């Protein structure tokens, strides 16, 4: 992935912090998901008083894309921090990693964890979820 594309994804993910609905934790997360079609799908976290119905930024982006018929992805950028101030990486939770396994090749799908356009690291889904369970585990 080119540095210009990474920078664009980081900027978009950071912009999503403004849309986060986090009245309980005040921990805002933004995501930018790159489809193989070249389009970027955005997401922010959305909390709920019952906690269980809370939806992470990553899943919001994936579900937006899938609801539009897109099921193939190259990368996701995730940013987050208390009060929307990003001071360290905000890696995806286990549920989000499992959603990624449903739609992404663990060997090639890239997860960009960023603080800003100059401070970021890139991981494969396999690095984030070794021995993940996905659709290929259910084929004969």
**Approximate shape:** globular
Low-pLDDT runs of 5+ residues are none
Strand-pairing-aware structural class: alpha+beta
Strand order, biggest sheet?
2-1-3-4-5
State the CATH superfamily name: Cytidine Deaminase, domain 2
Largest beta sheet, briefly? Answer: 5 strands, mixed
Strand-residue fraction?
Answer: 15-25%
Helices and strands, in order, run as HEEHEHEEH
User: What's the CATH topology name?
Assistant: Cytidine Deaminase, domain 2
Instruction: Name the assembly state.
Output: single chain
Number of beta strands: 5
- How many structural domains are formed by the residues? 1
* Number of alpha- plus pi-helical segments: 4
Provide the CATH architecture: 3-Layer(aba) Sandwich
Helix content: 25-40%
Question: CATH first level: which class?
Answer: Alpha Beta
On the 0-100 scale, what is the average pLDDT? 96
Describe the structure concisely.
By secondary structure, the chain is α+β, with helices and mostly antiparallel strands. Helix content is 28%, strand content 24%. β1 (27-35) and β2 form a beta hairpin.
Notes on the protein architecture:
Zn(2+) binds at residues 56, 93, 96. Substrate binds at residues 45-51. Pfam families: dCMP_cyt_deam_1 (PF00383). One of its GO terms (biological process) is pyrimidine-containing compound metabolic process. This is Cytidine deaminase. This protein has helices at 3-16, 57-67, 94-103, 125-128, and strands at residues 27-35, 40-44, 73-82, 110-114, 120-124. The protein has one domain: 3-Layer(aba) Sandwich (Cytidine Deaminase, domain 2), CATH 3.40.140. With 140 residues, it is of the alpha+beta class. Helix content is 28%, strand content 24%. The protein contains four helices and five strands. The N and C termini lie far apart (33 Å). The longest helix has 14 residues, at 3-16. Strand 3, helix 3 (94-103) and strand 4 form a beta-alpha-beta unit. It has a five-stranded mixed sheet. The mean pLDDT is 96. It is globular and about 45 Å long.
């Amino acid at each position: 992935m080119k540095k210009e594309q990474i920078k664009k994804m980081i900027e978009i993910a950071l912009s999503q912090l403004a849309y986060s609905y986090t009245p309980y934790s005040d921990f805002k997360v933004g995501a930018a998901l790159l489809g193989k079609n070249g389009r970027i799908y955005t997401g922010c976290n959305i909390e709920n008083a019952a906690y269980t119905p809370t939806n992470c930024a990553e899943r919001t982006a994936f579900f937006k894309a899938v609801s539009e018929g897109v099921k193939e992805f190259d990368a996701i950028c995730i940013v987050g921090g208390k009060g929307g101030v990003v001071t360290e990486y905000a890696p995806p939770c286990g549920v989000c990693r499992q959603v990624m396994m449903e739609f992404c090749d663990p060997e090639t799908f890239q997860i960009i964890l960023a603080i800003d356009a100059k401070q970021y690291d890139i991981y494969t889904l396999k690095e984030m979820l070794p021995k993940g369970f996905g659709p290929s585990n259910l084929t004969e």
